[in-house]
Structure formats: C-alpha cells, structure tokens
Write a structure and sequence with these properties.
With 725 residues, the chain is mainly beta. Helices cover 13% and strands 37% of the residues. Residues 1-23 form the signal peptide.
Length: 725
C-alpha cells in the first residue's frame, strides 16, 4: 500500500453547548428580552444573573457525505429566511444570529405609548454586528438619516419626520435608551441596557388622529420594521491585529470558512486552541479566490443566513458546510479545521489489488429510483434574502433527458440556506447531484486498512481491470475476530472543468422591493456625480445630477451611500432640487452609489437604477454665468453694477466678480472685487461701483466668471459702463 497523504483524524462525537450572552440585571419588564436570549434547552436564569444557553447536541466528525446517503432526521437551527424577515412577539425566543448579509425583522421586546407618541424596541440579532445597509418600514425601503429621522415620504415632514429610527450594534457596552427612561420612568431605568443585542428603538409620532396624514401612516396600525445588515463579526487569522479570544478585534466577512469556524466557536467548549488556524487560513484564502461566473467573477465560497442557538448545532453546521461546499476535518493532534471540497480532490491514500481481500462494488440507484433532475434553492439577495429556486432549464448536467423520458422525473433537491450566490449554489449542486447518482462499495482489507482512518479521499485500483477509481471514504469498520477492516466508499464523480457559459443558469431576476401603489414612472439613474470644494468657505459637497420623468409629481427623493473598504454604508438623504441634489460631505476618492425616485403626495415610484461612481472633481470649464436680473447704471461720475446671476453646471463651485478701468490710455489689469461660493441654479447677487476723478472719459468693465473646485475658470460674462467727466 502506498500512502499519498496520511492525516489521522478523530471520529469521536463532541457535546456542544451554546455560548452565553449578555443580559439585564433588572426587573420583570425585561422578560421578553430575556426570552430573546433563552432557548428551549436553556438552564434556569434569573433577571439578576447571566443568561446561558446549553444545548446537548452532537457534531460528528468524519464522512458527512456518507450521512446524507442514509438520511437523517433534521432538527436544524437554520432560521427560515421568510420567518426571520417578520417581527414577532414572544415571551421566550431563541437567540438568532446572522452570518454575512441578512434581512431581518426581530422580536418586539417592548412597546408602549404616552397616549400620543409610540415607542417600539426591536431585538434583531445577537451582536455585535458590523453595519446596517438598508431599512424597511411596512416592507417598503426608506432612508434613515444620521440623526435617525426617516426622510422618505410619507414619513418626512418639514423640519423633521413622523418617525425616528435609532440602532445599536450589540457590542455589549450598550446603555439604556434615554427616550424610554424619560417616557416610562416607572417601567424603564438605567439598568435596562439590553446588552449584546443588535437592536432598534423606533419612535412613531402622532400627526393628529383627525388628520389625513394619520391614516396614511397608521391605517394598518404601527408598521413592522426590518434591516438588511452586515451581521456577525468573525475572527480572521489572516489579520495580525485580531485576537481569537477578543471579539473586539474581529471584523465582518462573508468568507465561508471563517463563518463556519465562528458558528462552532459559539460553543464555549470549542475554545480557540482547539482549532488549527494555519490550516483554516489556507482554506480561507481559497474561499476568497475569485473564480469565473456567467456574469463576471466572484469569491469562491461565501456565506450568508441566520441560525438559532436552540437548534441542533450539528445540523446547522451541516447546512453551513453544504452551503459553502466544505467539510469539517481534524488533524492528527485532534485540532479542528475546515476544507473546501474540490471537484477533483487529491487522494490521500491508494488501495491496490494486493491490499484488497474483498471488493464489494454496488452500482448506483436503479434507473427507476435514480435522481435525474436537479433542483436548487439558495439564500437569494435577488429575491429579497429568501430561499429561491434557480431555473435550470437548458443546463445539461442538471437533467438526464433519456431517463426522464423513460422513467419520469426523479428530483434531487439541493437546499443551501447559507449560500448567497446562484453561481456558487450551482457549482456545489452539480457535484452533489452526480454523487447521488453514483456507485458505492465496500473494500475489505487486513488491518493495514486502518491507515484509512480519518481520511476523506482515496483511490482504488480495480483487480484485473487495472482501472483506478477516485472514491470518497467513509469511516472504516474493524472486525477484530477476522482481523479485517471494512472501508465503505462512494465513487467520486468525474467532473469536467466548470464552464460558466454552458454549466451555469442565470440567477433569478431581482425582485422589485415592495413599493407604494402608484402609476408613477421610474426615473432613469442619475447621470453624473461630482465632488466640490468651495473656494471661499472650504466646505466639501457631493452632488448628483438627474433627469426626472415628464409627469406631475410633488416630491423628489435622492439618496446616496458611500463605501468603505469595499463595503457600502446605509443610504442617506440629500437636498433635492429639480435637476440635481447635494449633501455636505467629503466623499472625494470614495466609491458612491446614488439613486432617485419621485412622489405624488404619498404615492411613490420605484427607485431608479443606481449610479455607481468614484467621487471625483470635474474641472472642465463652465459656460457663462446666466444673467437672472440687473445690469449697469451711471449716475454722474459713478458707474455701478448690480446683478443676480447663476450657473447651470453641476461642477460649478464659485462665481467671481472682476473689474478693470480704461482711463483713456488703455485698460488696466483686472482686480477681483468679490467671489462667492455657488451651486447650480443658485441665485448669487453681486454689486460694485466705481467713481471717476479728473477729466475725460472712463470706461469701466466687469466680468463674472464661474470656477470649478480646481480653480478652472469658465467663459466670462462681461458688463461695461462709460463715465464722462
């Protein structure tokens, strides 16, 4: 026997306990919040104590593919995406944690009113989380400004909003909400900190029970709210500054390998020293490698979804491993790591005829039972973060037409609740579909077969034929009485190189967000964006330009979001004008998205497509300032200019007034009389006068010049007046 690679691994079971969470040390008002932290398997805890959850679940190391062959009863902790998007009320609920990007409602932990204003405290996820990217009210997307005001109609009002939305990330350092302490001093105190939970306090203001606005806001009651958030922070061993035992140094990642390690580490029994971080690092690097897809490239193994701490951790882990295309492994020292499954894995051991006492080869399922159509569900951002089907029509590997014709459709369903990519889901599903159709067998060896213990992949040379088959190994079975080792195996499918053009179906079309019932047309995407530094004040500004549909509307809503480290922030409102919008912000050099929609009253259009740009200066010269009103006057020996002008270009940063005088011997140099910061279509007024002395004729000229951020001057508009002395 030759050993290609020998890695002994443990096949033992491990008892799993869910990690503890922060809790309030106070009164019964926190019952619902405690319930959010407790699971059905939780030990008793009082309001004064630390809440811990203990789940006696099992993670089995070894050949997890083999388990799927014989089937297993699932009590998974994976949270159904459709359920998690809603908000609910309960005195007891499992801890819910997110991975990657998720869309989540949450537990209505507290709600009350002072008779007019209403408050809702919503516990959304186990913290800490990284950021919130989108907000939804009643299923419709809204913009929440930095001060918490919801600036989208119908919630916006002059000088503020009918709704305020505040968030905490669940870092564990939370303090009690001042608004609740002030409004309900007998119910809420400084001790009600709701620590460690990513949460929202949403305040609903009353426009008056008899007003029409009240009905437009609350005709269905207080609406539910949701986030799209970048959820759990995870440990990345590639980050030298991170400490595996200090989650304050962790960062957000969709990396499937890191997410799998994170979920397992939520069990306090699986401390950081039980993991082989160098091996995990090699796989995390592989997970981040960009590979070709039908529409471009993407990272190989991404992860996103939600899971409940009270569920069977083994099944949750299996869902995650299936979704990222990986398996859990152990080193010879018993340390844990995760390995991505390659289409053509390297064999770790070879069995040749001399090693085989018996070889029982079992052909795959009978044709009448063998799956012949592959169906795929994945955690789809295109479908508002719910499990969605991929239409595999025309993809040859996903359907065996001859067998369908002869025996009817036999479906193999691949459900990947933590896979946020249609491309990734299909690459994984192809392998699993062909595995389900493949042959299996049992190789019987003498005790030398123990060398296969803990190995996952091998190759077997068939006696007489000389063919070599690659196989997936299941844990060996030892027969001491006979001195033999039985090694079950599944024949590894022959997978040609993935060709995105022919092997990959399109992702589902993006499902439009729920919008207001309206016939208003959707505006085109914004056409331009520019960074401005005002020459006079030095203030920074970001502007976008757009063209709106030629229909009647009352309100424009323009929003933007800036990227940091390649990740988008939440959408923020802008100051809208008829053809452009602006916001006081220094976004120079940053990636920025911008979009626009229109409203007629409370009826809104869909958002436009997004303009994605890098905020930059545009120093192309502007045209002449536009004369709005005014001109020159002469009174005795004094010539005066009094004008109002504006500029039309998005890139205009200021308008400058210069003057020169011809005293009969030619014009002298231009001198600057005034300069004012300006934005498009903003009326700017300039005034200046000149009084001559002596005899003869004086000619006075003024010019108004637009300037860009870089000081580039545009075409001047000139004015002239003569004084006769």
């Amino acid at each position: 026997m030759k050993s290609v690679r020998l890695l002994f691994a443990s096949g033992a079971s491990f008892v799993v306990m869910a990690s503890h969470a922060h809790a309030d040390p106070v009164s019964l008002i926190a019952t619902a919040i405690h319930g959010f932290l407790l699971s059905s398997t939780a030990v008793a805890a009082t309001a004064a104590g630390t809440i811990a959850t203990i789940a006696a679940n099992v993670i089995v190391g070894g050949a997890l593919v083999g388990l799927s062959m014989i089937g297993r009863q699932r009590q998974t902790g994976t949270v159904k995406a459709a359920d998690a998007k809603g908000t609910f009320e309960s005195g007891e609920s499992s801890v819910i944690e997110g991975l990657g990007r998720v869309r989540v409602g949450g537990l209505k932990a507290f709600g009350n009113t002072d008779g007019s204003t209403r408050w809702r405290l919503v516990c959304r996820l186990q913290g800490p989380i990284d950021a919130i990217e989108q907000y939804f009210v009643g299923g419709r997307e809204v913009t929440v400004d930095s001060d918490g005001d919801v600036s989208s109609p119908p919630w916006s009002k002059s000088g503020g909003s009918w709704m305020k939305w505040e968030d905490k990330k669940g870092t564990g350092s939370e303090t009690a909400w001042p608004a609740l302490i002030s409004a309900f001093p007998e119910l809420w105190s400084s001790a009600h900190r709701v620590r460690g939970i990513a949460q929202s306090l949403v305040t609903f203001f009353n426009p008056g029970l008899t007003s029409s606005k009240y009905l437009s806001l609350y005709q269905g009651g207080v609406p539910d709210t949701e986030w799209v958030a970048r959820a759990s922070l995870v440990y990345d061993p590639r980050d030298d500054s991170a400490d595996p035992d200090d989650d304050d140094t962790w960062s957000w990642s969709e990396n499937g390998i890191l997410c799998a390690a994170h979920v397992l580490r939520r069990d306090p029994a699986f401390t950081s020293d039980r993991f082989d971080w160098p091996l995990i690092t090699t796989q995390a690097v592989k997970a981040d490698i960009f590979i070709a897809t039908k529409t471009g490239t993407e990272k190989r193994a991404r992860c996103g979804g939600m899971w409940a701490w009270e569920g069977a951790r083994r099944d949750t882990m299996q869902d995650i491993l299936d979704s990222i295309g990986a398996e859990i492994r152990y080193t010879a020292e018993g340390k844990i790591w995760f390995e991505l499954i390659d289409d053509d894995p390297s064999p770790e051991i070879s069995l040749v005829p001399i090693d085989l006492l018996e070889l029982d080869w079992i052909s795959g399922p009978e044709a009448v039972e063998r799956p012949n159509i592959c169906r795929i569900k994945y955690y789809s951002p295109e479908r508002n973060y719910e499990l969605a089907d991929i239409d595999m029509t025309g993809i040859a590997w996903a359907k065996v037409d001859d067998e369908v014709t002869l025996y009817g459709p036999k479906y193999h369903d691949v459900e990947l609740p933590f896979c946020p990519s249609a491309s990734q889901a299909q690459r994984i599903a192809r392998r699993r579909f062909l595995q389900a159709r493949g042959d299996t067998g049992v190789a019987v060896t003498n005790m030398v077969g123990l060398a296969a213990w803990g190995l996952y992949y091998g190759e077997i040379e068939l006696p007489d034929l000389g063919d070599v088959e690659k196989v997936k190994l299941l844990p060996p079975r030892i027969d001491d009485s006979r001195g033999t080792v039985e090694i079950p195996f599944a024949v590894w499918p022959s997978l040609p190189a993935w060709n995105p053009a022919t092997d990959e179906a399109d992702a589902p079309e993006a499902l439009p967000e729920m919008q207001y019932e309206s016939s208003l047309p959707t505006p085109d995407a914004p056409t331009a964006a520019v960074h401005i530094t005002y020459p006079i004040s030095g203030n920074k500004e970001f502007r976008i330009a757009y063209t709106l549909p030629g229909v009647s509307f009352s309100t424009v809503e323009a929003t933007y979001r800036a990227y940091s480290g390649g990740l988008p922030g939440s959408w923020s409102g802008m100051n809208e004008q008829s053809t452009f919008a602006y916001i006081g912000a220094d976004l120079f050099g940053q990636e920025v998205d911008a979009r626009v929609r229109i409203f007629e009253g409370d009826d809104g259009s869909y958002y436009s497509d997004v303009l994605h740009v890098t905020a930059a200066v545009n120093n192309a010269p502007c045209g002449q300032p536009i004369l709005v009103s005014g001109g020159t006057t002469v009174s005795g020996t004094t010539a005066a200019l009094d004008v109002t002008v504006n500029a039309t270009e998005l890139r205009c940063a200021s308008i400058r007034l210069d003057r020169r005088v011809d005293d009969g011997s030619g014009f002298g140099p231009w001198s600057t009389r005034n300069e004012k910061d300006a934005r498009p279509f903003q009326d700017v007024t300039f005034g200046d006068s000149y009084t001559g002395g002596g005899f003869g004729q004086r000619t006075v000229e003024w010019r108004l010049i637009t300037k860009t951020t870089g000081g580039v001057e545009g075409t001047p508009r000139t004015f002239s007046a003569q004084i006769n002395l």
